[in-house]
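Hey, can you fold this?
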Amino acid sequence: MFQYAAAAGSGAANPIISLVVPFAIMFIVFYFLLIRPQKKKQQSRNEMLRALKKGDKIVTIGGLHGTIVSLTDDNVVLLVNDATKLTFERNAISHSVSTEKASESK
C-alpha cells in the first residue's frame, strides 16, 4: 500500500515538469529569435540618433532627404533645398546617409 503512495507522489511532479518545460523552452526561443534582436536594433538606432550632428545628411521615416541645420534634444531642423527648412522630431529620422553613399549616388 505504501508503495503505491510513493509511486503516486513521484508521478505527481512529472506532469508539472512536463507542463513547465515546454513553456520555458518556448520563452527561450522567443527571447533569442525575437526579443534580443529587437533590443539590439533599438540600441543601435538610439546610438545613431545620439551621434547626429549639424551638417549630417539624413532620411526621415517618410522618405524626406535633408541636411541637419540645428539640433535640440527632441527636435531637428532640416534644410531640404536652398530655402526650405523643416522641423522634425528626432525620432522621425530613419537613418543617416554617409558622405560616401551621397557622392556615389550623384
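Oh, and this one too while you're at it.
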Amino acid sequence: MSIVGYHICFIQGDWLIPTVWDKFQRHFKACGYACSVLSLPAPGEQGWYRVLHGKDVRSSSLGRLVDFYAKQVAAFPVPPILIGHAMGGLIVQLLLDRGLGVAGIAIAPRPPQCVFPGIRSLLQILTARAERLEGMRFLRMTPAQFSRRVGHPASRQTTDPLYEKFVGRVPQILMTTVALGVGSRLLFDQERGPLLLISGGDDRMVASSVVLANYCYQRQSLAPTDYISFPGYGHLLITQLGWERVADRIIEWLQQQLGWF
C-alpha cells in the first residue's frame, strides 16, 4: 500500500497519447501515491474504434467513452483520485457526476454542455487534417498546428520533438460531439467529490476564460470546488517547462482536501 493510501488514475485526453502523463506519474509515485493511466483497450486508432463502436446506439460517442472509463474506475476497491487533461478533464467531471472517484482534478478541461468552447476550439476541428482509418474518420494536427495551439508558448524547436513523441489521431465524431456539447451535460447541484479546475493563462486550445466559466457553474455544488490559473503556461501544463509547479500545487490541494493517512 502506498504511504498516502490513495490511488491516482490519469485519464487520456484528446490529440495526445497516454505517455504524455509519464512525468506526472513518476512525480506522484515519488510522493507516495499509487498511479495508473487509464488508456484505451488498444493503442491508437484501433483502441478508439473498439470503444466508440459499441452496441448502444442511443449513447453518444462521448457517453460511450465515459462508460468505458467508468467501468475501470468502479473496479478499484477504494475510489481513486481522478486526474484528466483536456477531454480527460471533462471526463473527470462526468465521472464525479456519477459518484465515481474520491476527488477530481481537471487540467485545461474541455467544457461541458452549458459552456461555449470558444471560436478557437471550433476552428481546431474544422482545420485539422482528416484521414479514414479503421472504418472511422480521424483528425490529426500538423506540426505547425501543434506548435501554434498546443505547444505555445514554447518555440517550434522545442515543440517539434514533442509532436513526434506525443501526438496521435482523434476521432472526428468524438471531437465534434464534444464541441457541440452532446453527452456532456453536468448536474452541478448534486453531491460529488472535491474538484479542482486548472487552466494555463496562455492556453490556445482551451482558453482560461472557458475553464473559469466551467468553474463558475461547478461552484453551484456544495462540494469543495477550486480554480487555479497558471500565468505563462500553455495547454501542455503537464509536460512543459515548469510542469513540477503544477504537479506540486495539485498535491498540496489533495492534502488539503483528503489529508494523509
